[in-house]
Amino acid sequence: MSDGDAVDPSAQLDRLLEDDPADLYENAPMGYLSTLPDGRIVKVNKTFCAWTGRLPEDLLDQRFQDLLSVGGRVFHETHLVPLLRMQGAVREIAIDVQRLDGSLLPCLLNAVELRGPDGRPQLVRATLFEATARRRYERELLAAQRLAEESEARSRTVQKVVFDLAAAGTEEDVATVIVARGRDALKARGAALVLVQGEPAGPVLPALRPIHWEGVSRELLRRLREAAGSRLALELAQGVRSIVLDERLGEDQPGLAVAMAETGLTELVIVPVSADSKRLGVLVLALGDAAPGQLISLVEPGQRRELPATEIDLLYTLGRQAGQALERVRLHEETVRQAERLSFLLDAARLMADSVDVDDMVTRLADLSVARLADICVIDLVTEHGTSRMAARHRDPERQPLLEGLRDQLAAQAPNHPGRRALAEGRTQWVRDVDESGLASMTLDGAQRSAVHRLELSSVVSVPMAIDGRRLGVLTFAADRNRTPFTPADVEVVEQLALQMSQVVDKAQRFELESRTSHTLQESLLPTDPPPIPGLRTAVRYVAATQGVSVGGDFYDVVLLPGGLVGLSVGDVVGHDITAAATMGQLRSVSRAMAADGPTASELIERLQDSWSLLGVQRMATALFGTLDPVSGALRVASAGHLPPLVCANGTASFLPVRPTRMLGAPRADQPAEEWVGELPVGATLLLYTDGLVESRDVDIDAGMDRLLEVAARACSADSDPDALCDRLLAEMAGEHRPDDIALLALTRL
Amino acid sequence: MVFAHGFGCDQTMWRLVAPEFERDHTVVLFDHVGSGRSDLSAYDPEKYGSLEGYAGDIVEICRELELCDVVLVAHSVASMMAVLAFAQAPELFGALVLIGPSPRYVDDGDYVGGFSRTDIAGLLDALDSNHLGWSADMAPVIMGNRDRPELAEELTNSFCRTAPDIARQFARVTFLSDNRADLPGVAVPTLILQCSADAIAPDAVGEYVHRNIPGSELVRLSATGHVPQLSAPEETTAAIRAFLDR
């Protein structure tokens, strides 16, 4: 190489630096273009042409924005144009230019707007730098940032859920929170929380109950429940999974597929809700086309977006949080309910203790039950004429008529009616979840079915009442869909109530039977009308007690004896029951038989005392026997522990001083019966009575006797009438409430 | 007259048009919450998760200022806010002017919105890329205009800047809403201004809006693009003026 040929580096540099401006424009290491204000390209350099694989003549007169990606075009219109117009320049705008082959060239764009003297835009000059590496880096940065944001959003969701759940006090609250948050998290069209009632294991299929739902139809939930069916335990164990509306679903679960299609759903995401190892239910998230008011999904219709693992994790977490919250509120609710149950049973016991009779008790118990434990309470009792519906109450008075429509004999119900089954099988029937098929088998016809349908029953418990194998009736409680279904503890309460009621009903039924028998017996034993006796006017009264067994062993008797004498007796067998009534009958017959051969009153008492043990009578009795000569007025009276007779005339009254000796059947004493002998003057009235007249809960016997004297004295006038006396005495002394029977025998000597 | 700006910038978009109406109208300009100089702390993602939230703000502004017989001029996505605002409080509005309206950007069966779902996904990405760059510091790099200091003030406040989170949600709400069903409810005189070669709201969409708003009037502008109030303020003003004069 010679010196002459040697290249002077600085001269070469000068030459390069003095390069042709046109060449610099054309081959600059950046794209240059000039456009009119509307974007039409009027000048473009070779670099840009080379980058985009286009010829200058292809580019000229094209609009710059038409070279951009769709996103770029929108950005151009919404940002670039306004910025240029108002600021005159933009810098470092990220924009993708489409190459001829359709691929994108990531660029950064700077531009200035040239304006005329009037300020109107004339030209836009833009330079574009290739920014592939930078944009890739940015994209990675962006992706990382998005991941971080998504992760932050998930944490925020979890935080919100935890926060909201902490304030939840009921299952319903928990459900509302989890449904709303779950729906937000997946931008789901709808969501529902469906819980298992009872344990998802065991021979009986547990019921599934939707607690709260938004944006999904009841029909869909019903279909989903049917689809879960017998495989429920398995389903719950499967974790987060999807039910996609596709051909297979159409074949396997046509009902569910139709319900999804009808409501525009494409996929159901099932999230297990659990606490520790307990599977409590599922959160159902319904994905599908955008609902009115919702944003359009970016997923193409008919296509499906796989749930990313991060979202599945989030859903799991939501399910667990919901499960724990449910356990907490359930524990709390159960504590509260337990206290309520105890207080209910206590109140029921109190109510039973002070009910007037079975009808009263049943009515009040039904009222108490719907106020405190159930929506519906029905009480059927077995009577001698079959079962009888004693009470049917609904908590809501507006729904009471629906229940009235069902008032019917239990025997006329469908064989599968829980009440009928409980009675027939003698054990509790618990329908945990009333479904369509269950409803169909429980009812007889469409009318009944539709009435029951409108009651919206969710669970029913029927408990038989029985004592010693004797069926007394059935107690039926039902909850409707607005109430938490019955738990085993609720069923136990119903059973306890049934037991308590059985005892009360049994006692009442026996009591009633006995009292009815006693009255019949007593009525058949007492003479209704004493025989007419010349020279005497007689009146008798028998008034049953108003409380207790309402039958006693009181008696009276008037009999004509041989020789013209009249035999009189009044007495009271100890006790208030059939035995007392029977003893009274016996005593009356025997005393009549003994009177036939004319013993004196004291002799009669002695004879009765002697033969008492032979009569086989278990009870003791007080009695007063006497004979009266209606012609002479001669009166002999003897008392076996009975209250003294009363004589009244002309406005005065006094007790005959008959000295009582031992009661009939009392242990033997030395003293024989004593007889009072005297005369009943003409116009005077003799009154024999039992202690019911003078003794009551409020008045002691001495006060009662004083009052008797006073009332009798007022009642006895010159022209005294035994009937008027009896009526007066009963009206003034017996009162409304009589703890004991009253027998009266009054004779007036004419 | 109340002017509601669209997606992208803020009320400055109206500065070449609004003054013309100040002589015979009370002119109200505002920035949507999340845009321009609005109070960003008032942004509630729940409320602004749908256009209803924005529409509610327009109604609130009118009530607060005790406006009546309002001519609501709305650009781009604000057009659907205007339709919803009318549904919320029909008594407030006397007329609507919708510039480049679109009730749904995503194609749907026979309906042509102009964009596929993929397009929109790409658009959301593109917006994100720019916000990344912008979240640095953009204002100082924009060339200032020394003759007009008020412009410099504007620049530092960068009227097209929005917090990236808000911009992203606004973009989603804008491009993923479907308000076709709301159009027939508009029962006031309505002017639709349709630009030529509008990449965002194509002519067919303008036609669709016109067909579905009973008694509406469609005026095609010779202005190209999507922002006639900036690119052709005189034509835009004249069209609105002509409509108001009737």
How would you describe what is shown here?
The complex is a heterodimer of chains A (750) and B (246). By secondary structure, chain A is α+β, with helices and mostly antiparallel strands. Chain A is built from 22 helices and 26 strands. In chain B, α2 (51-64) crosses α3 and α4 runs antiparallel to α6. In chain B, 49% of the residues are buried. Residues 133-157 of chain B have low confidence and may be disordered. Chains A and B meet through α5, β3 and α6 of A and α4 and α5 of B.
Helix and strand topology:
The complex is a heterodimer of chains A (750) and B (246).
Chain A: H1 9-17, H2 21-27, E1 31-35, E2 41-44, H3 46-52, H4 56-59, H5 70-87, E3 89-98, E4 104-115, E5 121-130, H6 132-166, H7 171-186, E6 190-197, E7 207-214, H8 218-228, H9 232-237, E8 241-244, H10 247-252, H11 254-262, E9 265-275, E10 278-288, H12 309-353, H13 358-372, E11 376-383, E12 386-394, H14 400-404, H15 418-425, E13 429-431, H16 436-442, H17 446-454, E14 457-467, E15 470-480, H18 488-525, E16 536-543, E17 553-560, E18 566-573, H19 578-595, H20 601-615, E19 621-628, E20 634-640, E21 646-649, E22 652-655, E23 660-661, E24 675-679, E25 685-689, H21 701-715, H22 722-734, E26 742-749
Parallel strand pairs in A: 20-23
Antiparallel strand pairs in A: 1-2, 1-5, 3-4, 4-5, 6-7, 6-10, 8-9, 9-10, 11-12, 11-15, 13-14, 14-15, 16-26, 17-18, 18-19, 19-20, 20-24, 21-22, 21-25, 25-26
Helix pairs in contact in A: 6-7, 6-12, 7-12, 8-11, 12-13, 12-18, 18-19, 19-20, 21-22
Chain B: E1 2-4, H1 18-22, E2 28-30, H2 51-64, E3 70-75, H3 78-88, E4 93-99, H4 117-134, H5 149-157, H6 164-175, E5 190-196, H7 203-212, E6 217-224, H8 228-231, H9 233-245
Parallel strand pairs in B: 1-2, 1-3, 3-4, 4-5, 5-6
